[in-house]
Specification:
Blueprint: H1 2-13, H2 16-34, H3 38-66, H4 70-91, H5 97-116, H6 118-138, E1 144-146, E2 168-172, E3 178-182, H7 190-202, H8 207-237, H9 245-252, H10 259-286, H11 293-304, H12 310-313
Antiparallel strand pairs: 1-2, 2-3
Amino acid sequence: MFGEVSGALETAGGYAEPLGFVVLGLFLFGVLFEYYDRRYARLVLGAGWVVFALFWLVLIYPWFAIDQSVIRGVGAVLAAPLSLLVARSLYTGRDSLFTLSRAVTVMGLVYAPFVTVRALRRWLILTVTGQTEWVMNLLGYDPALMVNTPDGRLLGPDGIKEFPFENTFVFFQDGGGTVTYTIVIACTGIGSMAVMIGLITAVRAPLRRKLRGLAIAVPIIYVLNIVRNVFIGLSFGNQYMHLFPDATMWLFGEDNPLRVSYIWADRIVAQSMSVVAMILILWLVLREVPEVLGPVEDVLYLLTGTEYDLADALNVDIDSSTPEPAD
């Protein structure tokens, strides 16, 4: 019975990508309607947020059970009901949520091409892979970089690598065998960059300040992501974080002790530090584009039911001279 349920949940996770494109389409139409008639925009964007909730819902099981990512799984658990709250609040007249809707639209427009266009995906993955290799070499490490494993197998589920790019680091173990670490699209930082690009470009602020905000956020995220890849690759490949193996394998449902270092390096340390890094980057961006506080305040209100004035609390002046579209 449990196997049937888990299989159904895993199958449902396969609908996340098409649902994502439905969400993006609804958001695009909604944003266009915002400049024509907000009454229609509320309906379309409200529907977009409802589908967005479903998108997060189908990702909960895969992120928890398959990806073994507690942080992303918890994020999906929170995002599903939050999306429904946004839909309801936007439909009932909280117009400030149009900004958050524009931000999500831009995030999707930035991220989607790198998922759907093979040439863009290949360019970004191989660029990040090459720079990760350069830093590893700089630190005195020289793992093999190849398309296949040494015995010629393609890597991935069922022995098939989804994209046969030269993006797999192979670490040879002293006792024989290999450990492989593959740079995929999630390892490029494009998701985090899309979030910041969406937040900065969605708010109504002078272009020069938006550009300064982007000049702060995007390079920092990109560099920190290379550091993250190097840390995970070396920690996993050289088994530097083989911590509490029995407890870790039991907690994450693993039967391969070599995976312990990967779980600690990526799923625990790197993902936790990524959250901290995004908060710090957001704080740096706020110094140039304090208008970004608006969407943050909206999210806090939806989560707590309390209105916040973060600009006043942080002693930040926000230029409100640019009018919002009217109904």
